[in-house]
Structures are given as structure tokens and as C-alpha cells.
Design goal:
Helix content is 64%, strand content 0%. It contains six helices and no strands. The relative contact order is 0.09. By secondary structure, the protein is mainly α. Helix 1 crosses helix 3.
């Protein structure tokens, strides 16, 4: 893998990390990515560590972590807080399992309504729409 230089512009760091420039700026506003100094009369320069940090944020988001949770993970990223990181991951896993359970329930209800829609004919109202009108 090619190593990114330590003098990337914001556009180059965004491209290297696979995000757009506004994402880099947003992460800076959220304190997920430090804003580099701007030498007098020059532009800010980013490095390989910035690219790695953006990729970390994106990877955590793909696992379902919110940006607040990602910030917590970043604070634990010194190699000595594995227990705390595990606790965050366990909480996220419990949340994902609960959402999956809800999605299975929703799937079952929708499947039944779709099935009922196919069996009703004539002047009878649509079971799906009728069920949405019920309190």
C-alpha cells in the first residue's frame, strides 16, 4: 500500500480517504479530526495520520457507530482502553440486535398486509391502507 505524504491539501486528503472536502471540514467542526495549522501565507497541510483517522471514522460509521460514539472510540485509541472499547461495542451490538428484532416484527406485519392485499377484491377497502388508519 502506498503511503500518503505529510503535505496533502484538504482536497488530496479527502480523496485519499475516500470522502469529500465537506466531510473533512465537518469532522473538524465535530472535533473528530484536528485542524492543522496554517503557516502564514500558506494553506493547511494534512498527513497520513489524518487520512488514517478519517478512514477510522468511516469504518466505525459503517459498523453503525454514531459520530458521538466514534468520538468516544477515538478518545480510547491509545491501546490501554480495550475494556471500555469493548463496552461501547457491546452496547452497539445490543442496539443492533434490538433493531433487527424490530425489523423482523415489521417485516412480518408488512408481509401479512401484502398477503391480505392480494386476497381482497371488489369494494372492500385495501387492508394495508385500512390498517394504517387504525389507532
Amino acid at each position: 500500500m502506498q503511503r500518503e505524504p505529510d503535505w496533502l491539501t484538504i482536497g488530496a486528503v479527502a480523496k485519499a480517504a475516500g470522502v469529500n472536502v465537506e466531510t473533512v471540514r465537518f469532522y473538524q467542526r465535530r472535533a473528530l479530526l484536528p485542524e492543522p495549522d496554517r503557516p502564514y501565507g500558506s494553506i493547511r497541510r494534512y498527513g497520513a495520520a489524518d487520512v488514517a483517522r478519517i478512514r477510522f471514522v468511516k469504518a466505525a460509521q459503517r459498523l453503525g457507530f454514531s459520530l458521538d460514539e466514534v468520538a468516544s472510540l477515538l478518545r480510547l485509541d491509545d491501546g490501554t482502553h480495550c475494556d471500555e472499547a469493548r463496552e461501547l461495542a457491546e452496547a452497539k451490538l445490543a442496539d443492533v440486535r434490538a433493531r433487527l428484532k424490530d425489523l423482523r416484527r415489521i417485516e412480518s406485519a408488512l408481509a401479512a398486509l401484502v398477503r391480505d392485499c392480494g386476497t381482497r377484491r371488489g369494494t372492500v377497502s385495501c387492508p394495508l391502507i385500512a390498517s394504517l388508519h387504525e389507532p
